[in-house]
């Protein structure tokens, strides 16, 4: 099956309209008519070869929502017409300890990314900037009725990437949570942490998005350009979620953690970060990382967002605006996630 898509043919070429092949619908597969696909910063890093070699031509996109158009003979979880989503992975070994624990993102044999990965049948996966996708039912999520498609899309990466660490480190009533950076990931971290009942502080370079941050549920907002911030908030937070993918002066941020506090990274700077271990001795602090979430937890996140009435802030674009949108993402000129209307791929 050939479907319209946008792809890049090299690390330096723009994304252009093309067609890609989707596998025939197998017994456990679901064919999805894509409605919207979000633009994640990872799409840009990947397609430009910044995170290692990738197979070209490549179609990216791992924030996918749409409607089930066809199901395989053995599919029990979904029916034609269901509202569904696909996130950052489309397969895993399903046998290792982590897969069996429902943490497929940490599959010991490597989860299969939604794009640019070699699937277990040997084909290269192609992402969501396309009209249709075929995915095994076990890696498909149900999108609650109350979340509009275009707003649901970014939940599949930005939503779960922030929900999972907030959930794991027990953000909730009585906990002080800081979110570093108010971009695609950060704005979801603020909304989710607030909905979980935590006291939320945004740490952003400047106060330029302060009104937005407070409207999203932040209780406090500080500029990290102002050194005073690091004195005022010393030994203060139970959890810091760092969504920034540029290197930070870690010592300053770790100093903000209270007893048993954790700073978890969900943004990924490509270069190593130096860490002063003495900073961790104080208050028995931890420095951690977290990667997306398992399928079960992703469904829990979607249901949580529906129940709490929270959703990303999005700007819908047409497919021909993708390259321009990339430039704007790189300049942080987006409030707060671009979502491609897949109807414009027709
Ligand atoms: Zn992503
Ligand atoms: Zn596994």
From TrEMBL:
Cofactors named for this entry = Zn(2+)
Specify the domain of life of the species encoding this protein. Bacteria
Q: Which PANTHER family does the UniProt record give?
A: ALDEHYDE REDUCTASE
* EC number per UniProt: 1.1.1.2
**Does this UniProt record's set of keywords contain Metal-binding?**
yes
The family classification in the record reads: Belongs to the zinc-containing alcohol dehydrogenase family.
Q: Where is this region: Disordered?
A: 1-21
Q: Keywords on this record?
A: Metal-binding, Oxidoreductase, Zinc
Q: Does the keyword Zinc-finger apply?
A: no
Per the UniProt record, one Pfam family is: ADH_zinc_N
The protein, known as: alcohol dehydrogenase (NADP(+))
* Polar residues biased stretches: 7-16
Q: Which CDD domains match?
A: CAD1
Q: Which residues form the Enoyl reductase (ER) domain?
A: 10-340
> SUPFAM superfamilies annotated for this entry?
GroES-like, NAD(P)-binding Rossmann-fold domains
